[in-house]
Amino acid sequence: MELNIGIVGAGDFAQFAASAFRNVPGINIIAITDIKPGQGEQMARDLGATPYTDYDQFLENPKIGLVYIATPPYLHYQQSKKALLAGKHVISEKPAALNGFEAEELAGLANSLRLLYVVNLMQRYNPLFGIVKDIIENKILGLFLHGFFENYASDEKLFAGHWFWDQKKSGGIFIEHAVHFFDLFSGWLGEGKMISACQLKRPAFDPCITDRVQATVLYAGGLVNFYHGFDQPGILDRQEMRIQFERGEITLFGWVPVKMRLYGILKKGQLAQLREWTGDGSIIRHGQGADKEWQARGRFEDLKFTDHISMEFGEGIDKQDRYRQMLGDMILDQWKWIADRNHVRIIDERNAVESLKMAEAAVKISEII
């Protein structure tokens, strides 16, 4: 069984994604379209694919089974709709569109045509996602209380005229970028409600550019703060996310996390359970025995805490390798659904719609500072 893919856009990320897709046996990249002839032709030569500069002609190729869209956000809606109407399955880069109404239209259209439509919200394909979800669902550290995601991103490649800064083309940071993390945390904590948001400018840098945003989302049990700033030198680009529980915390590092740290106190047997999920990791025991102060306050009276630990794992995994793995797992998961509609996917068209609606809510209630 084979899946023939046509790629829309020949930029750096399209080329990176292509390298991941080609690692999946049975996937063939047979066509590339880009409005810049030289760029598209070069990528097509490298991949042994047919180049196009006209999108409609590209869609007329009957051998293309799935269209992967890696263009700026303002093009996603129209390009996705055209591809679906041409009978092609679609995977689009985020966001689905610049507003939730268009995302819902695409999801409905795909369902009516029995075609695949999904946005590449690949964070749920990270092995660390599943480990954190298991810890939450099994209450290894008790109930969720609070969380944050802090994204101190580089702006080195985002020159003043880049489409990223033009909200008519990108939708702004909430819509273009934060959808990844709204979807990630809802995968862990369930549906959330946008409570507050703001957008910040640096007048000394450029009075027209919004380069930082902040949002607070209420989930069952507690709040999560999301901060995204695109204002750092490349060498200082860094991200951190944390989930706080009644008996400890989990911290992940990187916007594609490859390293996780757990700190807390565990019940008897839970350390062995963690080892099953995580494999080998560096564990430091800080002490043993029940926490008498907590028991005196009436909390966890029926529990015995036998391990007070710090645990780290994932160090040494290359972020780019993890990213390629996630992209490969994502497209394989979607391909299984194309072959068997009973297959339950990790993400589907609902993720595209709900993450965009959350981002849209942030934009609507945000103050511009």
Q: Can you offer a commentary on this structure?
A:
By secondary structure, this protein is an alpha/beta fold. It folds into two domains: 3-123 and 322-348, Rossmann fold (3-Layer(aba) Sandwich), CATH 3.40.50; 124-318, Dihydrodipicolinate Reductase, domain 2. It has helices at residues 12-21, 37-47, 55-59, 76-85, 100-113, 127-137, 167-170, 173-189, 270-278, 292-296, 319-339, 349-365; strands spanning 3-8, 27-33, 50-52, 66-69, 89-92, 117-119, 144-154, 193-202, 206-219, 222-232, 238-245, 248-253, 259-267, 282-287, 305-313, 367-368. It has a ten-stranded mixed sheet. Strands 3-2-1-4-5-6 form a six-stranded parallel sheet, with helices on both faces. It is globular and about 65 Å long. The termini are far apart. The mean pLDDT is 92.
Q: In total, how many beta strands?
A: 16
Shape: globular
CATH superfamily of the largest domain: Dihydrodipicolinate Reductase, domain 2
Q: What is the number of helical segments per DSSP (H or I, 4+ residues)?
A: 12
How many independent structural domains?
2
C-alpha end-to-end distance: 54 Å
What summary fits the major beta sheet? 10 strands, mixed
Helix content: 25-40%
Whole-number mean pLDDT: 92
- What portion of the residues fall into strands of 2 or more residues? 25-35%
What is Rg?
22 Å
Low-confidence stretches: none
H/E element order: EHEHEHEHEHEHEHHEEEEEEHEHEHHE
What is the CATH topology of the largest domain? Dihydrodipicolinate Reductase, domain 2
What class would the helix/strand composition place it in? alpha/beta
Class of the largest domain, according to the CATH hierarchy?
A: Alpha Beta
Please state how the strands of the largest beta sheet are arranged side by side.
14-15-13-12-11-7-10-9-8-16
CATH A-level architecture of the largest domain = 2-Layer Sandwich
